[in-house]
Design brief:
Strand content: 25-35%
Distance between the termini: 42 Å
Mean pLDDT: 86
Shape: elongated
Number of domains: 4
Radius of gyration: 27 Å
Structural class: alpha+beta
Strand order of the largest sheet: 1-7-5-6-4-2-3
Length: 550
Amino acid sequence: MTPDRTISARRAAARRGVLAVATLLGVAPIAPIVRAADARTGASAALAPAIVPNPLHEIREAGVFRLTAATPLQVPAREPGADRAAWLLRRWLRRSTGLRLAPPSPATPGRSSPRPAIRFLRRARTAIPREGYRLVVRPRGIAIEASSTAGWRYGVASLWQLIPARSGTPALPVPAVRIDDAPRWPVRALALTVDGDRPSPREIHRLNDVMAILKLNRLEWRKVRGAALDLDTRQSRAADEPPGLGRVLNLAEAYWATPAGPDGVRATAGTRGLRTASQLERRLLPRAAALAEVGWSAPSRRHWRDFLRRLIVLERHTRALGLHGSRAAFRVRTRIATDFHAATALVRLSTQTGYGTIRYTLAGGTPRADSARYRGPLRLRLPVTLRAADFAGARRIGPILTRRLDLATAQRRTSAQLALCTRHRSRWIEGAPSAAGARMKFLVDAADPCWVYRAADLDAARSVRVAVGRLRVEPPRAPGALVIRLDGCAGALLARLPLPRHPDAVTVLPAVPVPSSVRGLHDLCVRLPRSAHGGHWALAWIALEGPPPR
């Protein structure tokens, strides 16, 4: 199935999920509306404002406002909400652009500043709803109008997304625009379940920034039952994704399948298995942006490809602010079919979203906007090193994939690339640290640590070698043995390998010869000892090895 068809199939399934949840709750589903704006590209897309979640009304006007360190922040007297919003904008600008604005000052009633300024203005609740705001950017000044503290804060979030991040110029151009905005749903919540000493005060501070940027209005410290999005899942199978549930929920699925309850939208996330603040951020972002758009934007303002365009801009801003979300949506993925006799490989490249253009190199060097464009499957002679990345115009929007392709690694599979025998309680778990402090991640079913290597080509191998990872810091009292069977977990025994009593973080076990009578394609079942407490072991990788060189 092609990437486009895969996304379409997932999108259709996600829509069915939304309808099912809505039917159970007795509410109307949030219908995804795709219009011609999804195809907006080129210069018009570059000039369009890029704000997540998409505002209710926006009008692009002529000209720009030049923001400099001399631009004053003016707030109404005796309005602590406006003052706090101005300080928030000042902090975000300092961290994301290096620009240091002076502290906000009270505006004198009836008088306007002779210099271009950013002004915070109070309006009546009858003119602007409680969480709504009006943002007006013109060459002579910027005005953020609101009737509440929340409105000023959300106006700041939109203005900050319009300001270039790390541009390196003393005068930052802000496009002239008028935005009138208010949320669709009153509740846009993130429910966090706490495990151990996480989140720390610093993590909560960073989480508050995420919520303010995305205009989420509730942080709940409880387990949510009913309609909610399960962000404990990973966003891809990539090695840099944080630990979590075994299932993958990608960005497209989150965007189309976020359920709406009677009062709004919610997402749940837990801190179980997380060790760092960046892991929590990679669990939430950018899927929390999908939640925010569903909860804030009107259905007519939800366009999938335009959301991706705006998300790319938002990601540059959040990284400049020090927030690091998952980059799985624009990561290049590979599907490889190896011909061992011809020493060639057929390589297919794709991304989760299909957005942008994949560029690649085979002769070394970093992929650039003028590198070869991927147009279809590549027939490559081995060995070769492939590097690829996703681009939107001249800008790289995804991480660089580096993949060494040769016959030695063609039949090596990690736990992430194998099928689990069962999926009772599958999770991605970080192993014990190595001497250098690195930790490998394993996909494992704690109730039954068992994996299957499908259709292993034993014609191209003379031995099987496996490596096991240690999940716990303390060594196991009774190590047990690893068992490999042919043609399923009830098949013929190929090997029983004792596990070490004093293992490393990852331990390579002795090679297992393949009997000369065993040839062709076979499923290899690898099972590790079970434990009532989740076990000490996980499979790191399994490799089919050819004969030693003569």
